[in-house]
Amino acid sequence: MRNTSRARLLFAALFSFLLIVLPGGAHATPNEAAPQNIPYTVQFWSERADYDEANVGSIGDKYEYIGLKNFTGAEGHVPGLLTVDPSGVQFPDIELATSSNPELFAKLYHLNADFTTAQNANDDSAIRPLSADKKNVYNVFFDREVYDVVFEKGNQSEYTFDPVISKNGTTYDATTNPYTVRMRFGQEFGDAWPFDKDIVNVPSEGKRGFGLTGWKIMTGESSANYLDTPPYRLTYSEFIQYAGKRATSVSRPGVSYTDHTIAMGISFNTASHPVFVDFALEGFEDGLEPRQFPVDEALSYWKSDTSWTGYSFPVPEIKGFDRVVPKKQQKAVRSQTGFDRVNATRGDAAPLTFIRTLYGTRRDTNGYLRLEYKRQKFSLFLDNDPRVPKADSDYSAENTLTVPYGQAIADLNFPTPTKPSDLGDDVVFRGWAWDSAGVSMLADSSRSMPNYNVVIHAVWDTERQVVFNLDGGAVDGSTDRISRTQFDGQTVEFPTPTRDGYTFMGWADDNTEGKTYKSTDKLKVDGNMSFTAKWDQHPDLQVKDASVAAGDDFDVKSLVVEAEDAEDGVLTDQVKLVDDGGLDVSKPGKYTVTFEVVDSAGAKATKSAVVTVNMKMVALNEAPSLEVKDASVAAGDDFDVKSLVVEAEDAEDGVLTDQVKLVDDGGLDVSKPGKYTVTFEVVDSAGAKATKSAVVTVNMKMVALNEAPSLEVKDASVAAGDDFDVKSLVVEAEDAEDGVITDRVELVDDGGLDVSKPGKYTVTFEVVDSAGAKVAKTATVTVNMKMVALNEAPSLEVKDASVAAGDEFDPVSLVVKAEDAEDGVITDRVELVDDGGLDLSKPGTYVLKFEVADSQGAKVAKTATVTVNMKMVALNEAPSLEVKDASVAAGDEFDPVSLVVKAEDAEDGVITDRVELVDDGGLDLSKPGTYVLKFEVADSQGAKVAKTATVTVEAKQTPAPGAPTDNQSGVPAPQPEPQSATQPPASSGKLAWTGADSRNLAGFAGAMLLMGAALVATRRRVK
């Protein structure tokens, strides 16, 4: 198919040559720019068979690059990526020819239109048009088809049952919710397969050897293939070819299956036993034991199956391997001795143990299956020039490697590719890449050989010199400048230099004034580049050491002498203490403290100073003196206990009277008559103390009698639930000495008052005057039952509806009206509480439930029926095509397009401009004869019609020598009228097909030969 693409390109180029260059063809005028044919590349990506859908972080997690195709199109043209032909591209897990079989290919892959459009979109979400000044590379993404595999009762008459399967804590009953696995084409079942251990209701008839024998793929007939030896992938041969063959469920009569459903039926038998299955996969190296096929313990397992040794088990397909024997008979093992012989052939694999099922009998047996697989090998093609499209056949043995499946490709030894002759001396081989654009380099990948042929592409690029002028700095021993070789599009590898006394500020772009980059910036190489390091000199910081006596005041900032910066000037006030070294001026010792200053550009200077804390020598301290006095006070009068202190003095500290503290008040209570001893204390600066006591005599006070206040309250009634302020029961409170004291009344007992509950409640109020005299009064609150109106439930009106499958439909449109006697119209409060499983893609009847509630919580519910009808699609009518026959004299000009009269389509209208000449019948205007030409036209939906027209090339009559005559009568032909001197020749720029202009004859003949060769090649490929 790649050769077909090349032929199309050749034909397109030739056709453009005929139109633009040859005389007689439609060509551009001298003032018009000829249209450009722009080459573009379409890269194909395939969805991986196995990946974690929950952890897709990049395109590569879900898709793998599989190949490309090259095309050409007019500049500004938008490529039809959504209809791109996948033929000729090797897709994973299928034969190359399958991509050229649309019907079969559609069962395995489909183009992801949304993702493809998004990945090739401009800001306006349209696919990019072709441009002459850009690399026109597009990407198309193909997803794998998804199928449902249902595990249920078999369709044989006996030895089957409705299985109950337990998986991951969930139980599946075949009659209600059968175990169903949704798998994409090629995906590995793995633990999703229902193994014997997962089936919890295996029947038991008490017979010897009773057990499971595996699953059958069910078709419309009773016979089907056994799939009883996992592991399995969802392959075409084992599964997908049977999709839809079972039209209805066996366990659930009446349930239909789609063409993407594969039905599996369980089987059991009375003659089964334990069978151990070993999978031996060919290794990478020779000499592996046994027989170069080591056992893969991850795949091996025990199962229950038939004990008949004549049964040939179908050996499952394993990706990247060929089955040595497509079917295999088991070996009967009658004791542990038999398994000992088997274990001797299994290398380092864990030994097998005989399983006894019938104790005390010699007829007990196990089975053993050894399934061997040979590793497949595929071609790795080395493309030295990705600009030239190539078919697989274009690769010779010199640029083809044969690689076994699973081999790490980066570990292979690749030859140096031949450099294309048109590349300059400054272009060098950069490495191998997975894609022709050189985005995904082989050296950056851990990819192993897939199960299909792969092309890797040589990346040729211009070496660029990226120079870094260090300007006094150093990088890995270099102190002047360093130069690195990189390629356009790579990320600049910025180094990080160092320089004593300076802070590195970044790299200044020598070609762009004012542009500076950090070492962490991501800048793409674009030609030769030069950068110079920018430095900021550290500020100068001076500090000094100091000594201090333990306990003395000390300001650590006094150690800073000065801080200056070449750019910012004096920075002394910006110096910071960054480490105090544990400085404690109360403890003698040496402490190292560290200071730091930062200038405006971020450059730092750090210096340390030593603080020596010396032991302090002090004279003996004399205790202070304290003088206090006794006092008398009337009970209840104000009294300041500090008034007992007369004076406190200290020889060293002077007067300390204000520092005297009361350390014991002796229980002094000036409201109670009695004698109280209070104690005072004073402490000088050296810690010496003095303590003295004084006596306070509290005498009884004679006072006038106080009159108690009066309090007036009232009873009240209130409706249950109404607002009520209990303080409204207080009428007035008065006191002979204090006057009106209503604001001092307090509620001291609310009597359990609850205004939401009808009843009688006694509440108590109290008021106290300034002398402490109290009075209390009670009031009764009667809470009466409140009469309220009953709430009326709302009304709800809905309607049924019908909709065509696939059409848009809003369930809210079923709601007609919702009203409430109290709230009015409440249609906007209606909620859909049950959508009845509504699926607008599936015809059927669905019952939807709506509900509305008023402001007081009253609810009403109504149901409506939605009928989804099968959508009727109008048939497309084929177009009509009308052509006519014609005669032409040999050597005359003739345009085959003139044979087309008209082409029309019922849906598209006039489509004459879409008519194509698909067979020119060997038309040769220089040779008399009859030629049948075939035309074809297709409407927008692909319907085609073809018509033929006959062209008769007649021999041209030659006039007799002498005067020119009319062709038929022999009468002298009229002479042409004289032309104006300013009129250009009538035939300027155009010649008939007679060879009148011999200068173009050779070019025309060569072009016709090329055109004929292209047409013949195309016709051969079509056959």
Automatic annotation (TrEMBL):
Protein name per its UniProtKB record: Repeat protein (TIGR02543 family)
Asked whether the UniProt record includes Ion transport among its keywords, one would answer: no
Gene Ontology CC entries for this record: cell envelope
Any signal peptide, and if so, which residues? 1-28
Record-annotated membrane-spanning stretches: 1001-1018
- Annotated organism of origin: Schaalia hyovaginalis
Q: Which Gene3D superfamilies match?
A: Immunoglobulins (2.60.40.10), Listeria-Bacteroides repeat domain (2.60.40.4270)
Top-level division of the source organism's lineage: Bacteria
- Note down the stretches annotated as region Disordered: 955-993
> Ranges for the Pesticidal crystal protein Cry22Aa Ig-like domain?
545-613, 630-698, 715-783, 800-868, 885-953
An example Gene Ontology biological process = carbohydrate metabolic process
List localization entries.
Cell envelope
Arranged from A to Z, the UniProt key words for this protein are: Membrane, Signal, Transmembrane, Transmembrane helix
Report if keyword Transmembrane helix is assigned. Answer: yes
InterPro entries per the UniProt record, alphabetical: Cry22Aa_Ig-like, Ig-like_fold, InlB-like_B-rpt, Listeria/Bacterioides_rpt_sf
